Amino acid sequence: QVQLVESGGGWVQPGGSLRLSCVASDYTFSTYVMSWVRRVPAKGLEWISSIQPTNGRTDSANSVKGRFTIFRDHAKNTLYLDMTMLKPDDTGVYYCTKGWGYTGWVPPDPLGQGTQVTVSS
Q1: 29-82, pLDDT tens digit by residue?
Q2: What is the torsional sign of CA 74, 76, 108, 58?
Q3: What is the largest CA-CA distance in the chain?
Q4: Which residue in 28, 63, 48, 62 sits closest to 96, CA to CA?
Q5: How far apart are CA 94 and CA 71, in angstroms?
Q6: How far separated are the first and last CA of the chain, in Å rounded?
């Protein structure tokens, strides 16, 4: 079972940017569809974005389209999420996980520790 470790969160002012990373424990990462989800106060778990392993096809929730970019580096066994134009509503704990997500999706695998993102002035 591949282990996933998220990092890169922190505090940022509205309009700012952050890059999140998710490092996988082994090379099988390159075969998995991967997603980012977040747990937002008062909203629960929310799917953000997904990426295919080979053709790089992506999809994102409407709430982050045009602001967040998901990408991956197989040589580094790492998944990324570039977040720009951050808003207070983006505050939450961000997790990476296996699978292709969609609005309302509940990831099948247990989530890791995640990384906290706080957007406030």
Answers
A1: 999 999 999 999 888 999 999 999 998 899 999 999 999 999 999 999 999 999
A2: negative
A3: 40
A4: 48
A5: 15
A6: 40
